[in-house]
Amino acid sequence: MNPKIDDWLLEILACPQSKAPLRLDAEAQELVCDESGLAYPIRDGIPVLLVDEARKVG
């Protein structure tokens, strides 16, 4: 199941660590911050923007 994050919501969401914008990785069901290198999970359609729940990317 691919998550659907509305465009307006994606525009206002930011990485809690770097405050940089997030991009949707629908295949991995994550919101990714390229600046901090963290990926935040989307669970049941809800982004979990907690640094402790994020995984390092790359």
Major sheet size, sense and barrel closure? 5 strands, antiparallel
Mean pLDDT: 93
Structural class: mainly beta
Number of helices: 1
Query: How many beta-strand runs?
Result: 5
Coarse morphology: globular
What count of domains describes the coordinates? 1
Strand content: 25-35%
What would you report as the Rg, rounded to the nearest angstrom?
Answer: 10 Å
Helical content class: 10-25%
Order of helices and strands: HEEEEE
CATH C-level label = Mainly Beta
Q: Distance between the terminal alpha carbons, to the nearest Å?
A: 24 Å
Assigned CATH architecture = Single Sheet
Low-pLDDT runs of 5+ residues are none
CATH topology: N-terminal domain of TfIIb
